[in-house]
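Appendix B. One record, verbatim.
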Amino acid sequence: MRVTTISRVRTRAAVALTAGALVAGATAGAGPAAAGPKAAPAPAAECGAAHRIEQKLASGTTWRMCWAYQAKAGLVLEHVSYQPPGEPRPIKVLTSAKLAQIHVPYDDGSVEYDDLTGFDFGKGLMNLAPGECPGGTIRTVKVPDAWDPAQANVKGLCTTTRSRGHAYRMQGDAANKVYQAQGKDLLVYTANQVGWYEYITEWRFQDDGTVTTNVGATGSLSPADYDAGDGRGWPIGKGAKAYATSHSHNVFWRLNFGLDGSSKSRVEQYDSKVSPPARGQAAPTNRTTRTKITKELAGDARNMRWWRVVSTAGKNKDGHPRSYELVPGASHKYPGRGYTKHDVYVTQYNKCEQYASNNPLDCGAGHGRSVDKWVNGQTLTHPVVWVNVGFHHVARDEDQQPMPVHWQGFTIAPRDVTAMNPLTPRELADQNGRADDPS
């Protein structure tokens, strides 16, 4: 889907003119906590009502956060906290989270785009129809530095809830007793147009504390005919007359953790190695080792490797430090640029470092403009996590018209944030650890 720089800008400017009039937003489905004599006081609001999202899900879990909007990054979530049933106060998770780049190089080497910093991604915010936000609320967003200031208010931010299926299922000791629950998510999303593409930026907050973020690319293939890097391209339409250019979508996110309200987290890497049976063992052995990441990191996903960000300020009721595990999604790693060669970067916080490539902020002479240049041996006291997930788009007949959404993203999963499954039924609340544990 290749278009010239001029056509991409013109397309987005035209979209800006469709913005609607200002409509006051309201929190979707938020409800007050159940009253009781020992109820904890309501947490202090970290933003005004117009920029606050608070959702209590059917299980009793409450997610709270603030939202902001930027001309390049689009939607930014701040002060994200999670309060499951049984926790007296919100557990802070993220100080901020946002897209950090969508890098789109074409297979024939003719062009490459940085859709956030090169085309002001945030200015392409689209109006959402009520049917696109079922059961939820569409909030009005004031787009910074809009192309047409008179049309700068866009009904473009959806907050709603969705079922995700089983949260758990377990056959009890009695043959006729089944413990099961259906999970619920808070869904927050926007749709932004860049050239022929429309990107759906989605954040899902589960009632068990899991957070998943995805970018879905949809819209249209470029109507022009191009040859791809392999000399043939992929034929679409009748016969072999029209060829769509293959290209990549390398999406970056920037996560600034604030576990338990502190930026002073630590990062750990875990690797497991399976060895053949030895010394009469009945099965292979699997040994897992932990590496403390004390310096900035450019990391690669591997089989049986994972990372976690660990709180230094809080523990769960079992006395274990709270943490969030990084679960990368499926990815087509693009080796063409230095900043796309790794799946995960961990850098020391620097306010100037905001975008993974072609960072537009002036960070000083010799600082470098991409995330790979920022990994230079600094000690990590305030780690920022950058995640890169790639998708190689080889077009197909089914991509027209319109193009189905193709998703790419990752998850952060709670690890020891609570002492037990936060959705544990009351009858099983005493089953924590060994049954013969005297404690």
